[in-house]
Amino acid sequence: MSTAIDATTTPAEVVAEGPGSGQDRARRGESLTGWAFAAPFAVLFVLFLVVPAIYGLYLSFTGETLTGSGGELLGFANYAEALTDPDMWKSLGNTLWFTVLSTVPLVLLSLAFALLVNLGLPGRWLWRLSFFLPYLLASTVVVMFWSWMYNPKLGLINGVLGEFGIAPVAWLQDPNVAMISVVVTTLWWTIGFNFLLYLAALQNIPEQQFEAAAIDGAGKWRQLFSIVIPQLAPTTALIVTLQILASLKVFDQIYMLTNGGPAGATRSIVQYIYESGFTGYRFGFSSAISYLFFAIIVLVSLAQYKLINRRNAA
Amino acid sequence: MTSLDRHISRRRLLSGAAALAGGGMLFGCAPGASRSTSNLDYWHLMTGGDGIVMAGLVDAVSAANLGFHATQTVLAWGPPYYTKLAMASAGGRAPDVAIMHASRIAGYAPGGLLEPWDLDLLAEVGLKESDFPPLVWQKGMYDGKLYSIALDTHPFVLYYNTEHATKAGVTDALQTMKSPEQFTEVATKMQEVTGKHGVSYGYLGDGSQMWRLFYTFYRQLGAEMKLVPGQKAQVDEDAAVKALSFVQSLLDDKIASRSGDGGTATSEFLHGESGLFFGGVWELPVLKDAKMPVDARPIPTLFGTDAAYADSHTFVLPRQSKASPERRKHVYQLVAEILKRSVKWAGAGHIPAYQPVVRSPEYQELKPQSNYAGIPAYVNYDPDVWFGGAGSDFHKYFAENVQNVYLGSGDPAAGFEGFVKRLNVLLDRPQPV
Predict the structure, then answer these.
(1) Does A73 touch chain B (CB under 8 A)?
(2) Which InterPro entries does this one have (chain B) (predicted)?
(3) By C-alpha distance, which of A116, A67, A52 is closest to A291?
(4) Is ipTM > 0.85 here?
(5) In this structure, what DSSP letter does residue A128 have?
(6) Do A70 and B90 touch (CB under 8 A)?
(7) What is the model's pTM?
(8) What is the pLDDT of residue B429?
(9) Which of A46, A187, A218, B394 has the fewest CB atoms found within 10 Å of its own CB?
């Protein structure tokens, strides 16, 4: 939904681990306890994720609507319609464009901020706080701030620009800049999480490596490129993965800032799914789009997995 | 939908579980479970000033010892309300009575989400067709049955600052203008007085606002818009281009701001920085509270035919799987009692639909409300189609194609063509209701 990142672990992985051999009965008892602990999650997981996902797949082959009519099987008609629907392609394009525009600065800037804070400047806690604080805000609050700042007539941003004689910009109403505005808001809001991951990783780099490098005569920049960035590689891989997935499912800030406008310039695919289903009443069609989108997410995840694995192997 | 809950975190799932537990409690008091016949569930979407007036009316009726009382549930305006109402009706667990915009009936009645009103029962509580303006009553008819009873008509009107009008010497012209040129002249004179803008009109990012003014002028040009699923949209392109060009000509950053949104436009007019204001009648309470010298009139007929965009808040009976005749009787009484007290509702700017109230001296004394009380005689609702109506995607698609025309960068013909193309795509799709 938001581009905030959710860390997910499957309890099954935790449960599946156990001693390799012997003490069978004890192990069985242990694993029963494990399952008991996992059961509440498992029940909800099945009830709210597995079942709806399967039901959604079924719906995507029907003409099901909100009123309960049209439940007959249609085969691939919904998929065919979705693939020839210019609005579907446009919102998919918007989503990919948003992902590119947001992921690059969210990774690079968070690294830059983490490096700056890690320099040990005075007032370090204040820097850390101000980079991280926005992340704690609810999307509604963030949108409130920014939609006022972006207001073309009364907004802070145009007010400041006006002082320098720059003509007002319709930040959220001009199709050419609306997406940039959404990205800037997202950046301000969610950079804190990546920043925190980077900062933690930076503080985990052993001090001796820097000492050794310094003795060998490496300057700060050499240390950055030869020690810091390689040491951060696993963190970077994690952040990039999570960020791409989070950006792909962008919805709330766009829904509230621009409602997908102007002229559909910021409508994301998730919003299009929502509109087709909940205001357009066509559950079947909307499920079909969501499955097409799901396929794309799976492909992206697989590609990344391959890429990271190959890098690790090399 | 599925992809929304696909990436669910454990924390989110746990909060889902909490919601489930809470939901269980909600179901306990939802319609269907141990309901008495004397407590009616009433859903509506009125908040702010409207909400306060409506709550007062509901309380007054409940206090009248008629053997029932109503509990109102107020939901957020627009798509959230209509989605919830449709879902509740589809599940048969709907409230006893609900408010719906007249423009939404076309999307609800065909799918069996609403139940028709019984004319005999209405007569029993003293409501009959002749108590309502013909066009307003007719809007509630679908397939020969009455699906909604109007509480009001709320048109898009023209407000003006009487002090500025006097200074600009346009007091008479305001009442007599009959052409776009005359309107532009009045607006220009107003601009000379205020030194800022002549007209305030907030539309930016708000498709409904864009549509309301456009549709008023489009209908004044004698044009119609018919949307029949399975057919191409029947529109009058020349009229549309004329209407759009006129709006565009006003939004020149002199007569009116090229990029005014709702908040900016209202505050501009309130602070005397413009003399005219295109707005819905629901804006009236804010303007009156500001104690400014304001008056209102219908949007003048500039293109020959009397026409005004409006919508109506109406009472509907959402489909219930088990409806008790006893409760239904109370619902009819509730509606009749609210209508008979609707002069209070007129205080919020709306024109009551119930004619005995409109004819009452109490209403006739309300100014400026009674200035525009004649609008229901020639009112124009949104075209009937399942994806149309208040707060619908229809308005949104209008904005998507026409906003750049209003902003001055788009060509009126191309903008309208884009909108019609979008309509044709929707008309071509299977109708979900």
Answers:
(1) no
(2) Bact_solute-bd_prot1, SBP, TAT_signal
(3) A52
(4) no
(5) H
(6) no
(7) 0.81
(8) 84
(9) A46
